[in-house]
Structures are given as structure tokens and as C-alpha cells.
Amino acid sequence: MNATLDQVAQQKEHTPLRALFANQPFWVTIALIVMCLVMSQVSDVFFTKDNFFNVTRNFSFIGIIALGMTMVIITRGIDLSVGSVVGLSGMVTAMIMHAGHSWWLGMGGGLLTALACGLVNGVLVAYLDLSSFIVTLGMYAVARSLAQVVSQNHMIYEFGPDEKLFTTIGGGTVFGIANTFIVLVVLTVLVSIALRYTPWGRWVYAIGGNEHAATLTGVRVQRVKLSVYVLSGLLSGITAVLLVGYQGAAINAMGTGYELRAIASSVIGGTDLMGGAGGAYGAFIGAALIEVIRNSLLLAGVDANWEGTFVGLFIVFAVALSKFRELKSG
Amino acid sequence: MRLFELRGISKHFGAIQALSNVNLNVDAGEVLGLMGDNGAGKSTLIKIMAGNFRPSSGEIWLKGAKVDFHNPVDARRKGVEVVYQDLALCDNLTAAENVFLGREAKIKFGPFSFVNFPAMYREAARHFAELKSETRPRDLVKQMSGGQRQAVAIARTRLSNPDIVLMDEPTAAISVRQVAEVLDLIRRLRDQGTAVILISHRMPDVFAVCDHLSVMRRGTVVADKPIKQTSPEEVTALITGALERA
User: Fold this and answer.
1) How far is the C-alpha of B4 from the C-alpha of A156, rounded, in Å?
2) Residues 6+ apart with CB under 8 A from A57
3) Among B99, B126, B159, residue at a domain's last position
4) Which of the residues A31, A64, B139, B156 has an alpha carbon 20 to 30 A from that of B85?
5) What is the nearest CA distance from B174 to chain A, expressed in angstroms?
């Protein structure tokens, strides 16, 4: 019996169920659910509204950055500057408001600073063809130093006339859900749609898969590469303004170590450091898992110093698992 | 009027003379075979015809007008499509996405464009069916055989309905049945009035499908004749240098 064209067009190698089981974020979600179930038995604080609020708010900061990191890594790049950009743009926001300006001028200034950092990264990587590791490592150093210069090593905790509004944006809630978590969810949905359903998204994956082929077929590779670094910068800026609002204070060390946590979230969520694979939901769930591990250790009474060991083991385990699944299916 | 002409094309890279005074032409509905050993200059010539390199001297004429290709996309816009030797495919994308890479079918909502996946799957399936290939549009290229990957690369050239298709060793790494199908496709392209320039090492394939043959050695064209006036033995001698000219 001959198949019609439409029937052939519909055929796939995997059934939807099989595709789900091959999906790394799916397994991370399962791990997260299992962990939550275990913790609900171990500690009666775990499933309280307060704890849930803390956990979701905490991982949102890293989660937002991880979205940007994921996009950069898919193009076979890396952005080591995100933590320092958080420090610099947070500081700029704080200083603008401290000088008495409105909250939107403060936030605007912070976001623009972050965008500028992303732009510099992107131009150097995309148009001058410099290694993203080196460029963003340079920005990591420069942005942190500028944060120190701009702040003169002072902590800023007075945010002028708009202080209350500003700290509510970063630290407040809507119907009991942390604002930062809402921002994370919205951004995750937007990034996911962009990566999956727009031509730009296809180009991001193509560049990671075979950049030369993308160039030959007419994809504007340089523009697309620039865009992912700019977006990474912007997302770091968003985290910065939320973080300063939530903390109610700004110091130039803000964001230290965030780059590694963002990379860890991204990788656990299924992003391949070699490029060409990964997604927004993976970044989200990876960040969630790391935070739940941290929270669980705390509630279980484990010494906080062990946190790094557990997270590190999880990262290696997640990568090994995805390698194992790849070998099995390939 | 010849459809496509290279007149006196030379190319040097520093002190290395890759091509010297190459003349080539192909007409609509004609298949030209380009043969020569490794290092003869075939790849350089293809890259010039595809817009990857500019010639050091000489002219390219297309449809009776002199043209200058600034880059491969420019060449494609002017009517030249290429199937590269390594196929230029992204393993992490599906067959349909690879076919339409850079030219995705879109649905617009105001300022936002989204990929029209159903249209791409249908179109890609149609092209694969015309190629008599079993490639499925939704499958990842990573999991495909050599012949299926070849079909994806060839399907890609069909999108712009080009005047000329350049093929760099298209039958090198595929099965016997697929070879017959690729040669059939080349014949179909020819029948539709497309000009095909086929670079190949495989003598039987060249003699099966080409109308005309150019042989290169050390950067120059040593023979340029209709296929009926030559033989595999003569061509082999030309490639190796046992025969100087023919």
C-alpha cells in the first residue's frame, strides 16, 4: 500500500512517549519531584508556604541568568561574565536611585549597563571572532572591577524617594508568589517560544550544530551570535535589579559565583557544552533542582559546607547520564 | 547565448597558482562533467563558481551578462545552487529544518515571525518524494544514512529553482540504489532546463549522465569535449598526464 505524502510527512523516528523519555529535563523534573516527596517526609518545614516561597525566589535569580547562559551555550559559546555584570549593573541601579532619581531611571540605567556589557561581549565574539571563553573572562574581570570603582567599596542601602516601590518589585509577592519567580516563569516561556518556534531559534541551534553550514546557507551568523550575548547581558541585568530590590542593599560583590551556578543549572537541564542542544525549560528545572538540593540539605540539618559537594556530584552525574543515554540511542 | 561561462579564470593563493586561464561553459538543459585528480583545481573552481572565492583574473558570465559573486548567498540569489562535498548539514536539526535553513517558511503575527513547520514538512516531503528518497522530514539528520543526507542536501537546492546546480562528488558515499536515483535526479534537472555541473571521480557515473566533459590537470583544462567523442581510457590518461591534451 503506498503512503500519501501527508502520511510520510507526519512520520517520526520516535513516538511522543519515547521522545519524552529521551528528554533530559524530563528526568530532572522526575528527580525534583522525588526529592520533594522524600523531603516532605524528612522535614515538616519543607512543604510550608514560607519555605516554598524562599526556594522559588532563591532559584529565580540564577534561573533567569541560566536562560541567557543556555542560549549562549547552544551556539557553542560561554558567558563567564554574568556574575560580574550582575554586580556592576546592580551597583549602577543602586547609585542612580541613591542619588534621588526615580525607580525606572535606576532600573533603566542598570539594564542599559548590562546590555552594554553584553554588546561588548557579542561584538568581540561574533565580529572579531575571538574566543567567547576569553572575551567573557575579560568582561568578568573588567565588570567586577568597574563595580568596585563605581561603588568606591561602599554598601548602598538608601534608595531615595522610590525606595519602597523598588524593594517591592524585587522582594514582593503577587497572590503569595514571589515576584522574581513570576518574572522567571514569564521569561522561561518567552525564551522557550523563541528558541523552538522562531527562525531565529532555528539559527541559534544551527550555529551550535554546524556554524559553517549555517554561514553557507545564508544565516546571518554574526548577528545571531551577537544577539545571544546581548540577551545574556540583559537577563543578568534583570536579575541584578530584582536582586538589589529584594536585598534592599547593594554591594559590589553581588553576583559573585553566579556564572558557575548558571552553567551548572544549564548543563543539568540538558544543555550540551559542545553546542547545538538545550532549552529554556532545562535551565529552569536545572536551577530549581540545585536550589532544592541546597534547601533539602539545610532542612535535613546537614552542614552547609557540604552543599558544594552535593551540587558538584549532581552536575557530573547529570552529564554522565545524558552521555549514557546518547550512547544507548546512537 | 551560453547560459553560464567562465572566461580565462585564474586564481592564485600567494605564490601558488591554483587555476590558470580556465574556460568552461554549460548550457541550459546540459550536464557538464568536471574531472581531474586531487589537486587539479576542481574544488577551487567550484568555490569560485559558488561565490566562496573571487577569481584573481577572468570573468564569469551568466545568462549573457557579466556577474560578480560576492558570497555564496549572492551566487544563490543569481541562480547558482551548490551541493557541497560535506553536504553542509546540521546534525542536530531535522531534515526539513536543514532543507529550509536560512529560508524558513514563516507565519507572521505582527512584528513576530514563527516557523511554519507543517508547510516545511509538507514541502520537504514533496521534494524527497521527487528524489525517490525515503528521508522523513521530521527525522534528525544525525540519525540518517549517507543517501538520506544526500537527499536533504539536494532537496535544499530545489527551493530556489536555480538555473545551475553545482554538485561536488554527490555519489561518493552512497549506496548503489541511491547512486542510480541521484543520476536520475540529475537527468530530471537537465530535462527541466537546469544546467548541472558534476564534479566526480567516478567514471561510470560521469559517462552515464554527462553530455559534455572537461578534464583538469594542475590548474588548467586539458580537454573539453562532448562525452560521445571520448572514452574512459582517454579520460584516465588525461587525468594522470599520460595524455597531454585531447
Assistant:
1) 71
2) A178, A180, A181, A246
3) B159
4) B139
5) 20
Say yes or no for a CB contact (<8 Å) between A213 and B89. Answer: yes
Q: What is the pLDDT of residue B8?
A: 93
Pick from B113, B95, B115: which is nearest to B105 by CA?
A: B115
The residue with cell 532543507 is B99
Candidates B115, B129, B139; nearest CB to A5: B129
What's the alpha-carbon Rg for chain B, to the nearest Å? 19
Half-sphere exposure in the Cβ direction for B105 (13 Å, CA): 14
Handedness of CA A330, A12, A196, A189 (dihedral sign): negative
Q: What is the CATH number of the domain that holds A81?
A: 1.10.3470
Per-residue 3-state assignment (H helix, E strand, C coil) for B116-175: CHHHHHHHHHHHHHHCCCCCCCCCEHHHCCHHHHHHHHHHHHHCCCCCEEEEECCCCCCC
CB < 8 Å to B81, chain A = none
Q: Is the pLDDT of residue B126 over 60?
A: yes
User: Which residue ranges in chain A fall short of pLDDT 70?
Assistant: 1-3, 5-6, 8-14, 329-330
What digits encode the pLDDT tens for the residues A186-197? 999 999 999 999
User: In chain A, which residues have their Cβ closer than 8 Å to the Cβ of B115?
Assistant: 197-199, 201-202
Cell of A115: 546590555
Q: Is residue B70 located within the same domain as residue B174?
A: yes
pLDDT in tens, B197-210: 999 988 999 999 99
Structural domain includes residue A13: no
Segments forming the whole domain that contains residue B193: 1-79+163-246
Residue % of chain B over a pLDDT of 90: 59
Compute how many other C-beta atoms are within 10 angstroms of the C-beta atom of residue A148.
16
pLDDT confidence of residue A283:
96
Please check whether residue B42 lies inside any domain of the structure.
yes
Of the two residues B26 and A18, the one the predictor is more confident about is B26
CB A279 within 8 A of CB A86: no
Please count the structural domains in chain B: 2
A290 in Cβ contact with A261 (< 8 Å): yes
Instruction: Supply φ then ψ for residue A122, to 5 degrees.
Output: -65, -45
Picking from A11, A13, A276, the nearest residue to B92 by CB comes out as: A276
Chain A contact for B160 (CB, 8 A cutoff)? no
Total number of domains in chain A: 1
Among B141, B159, B177, give the residue marking a domain's end.
B159
Using an 8 Å CB-CB cutoff, list chain B residues near A212: 88
Q: Which of A10, A218, A277 faces B102 most closely, judged by CB atoms?
A: A218
Instruction: Answer for the pair A92, A148: CB distance below 8 angstroms, yes or no.
Output: no
Minimal C-alpha gap between B163 and chain A (Å):
17
Partnered with residue B12 across adjacent β-strands are: B17
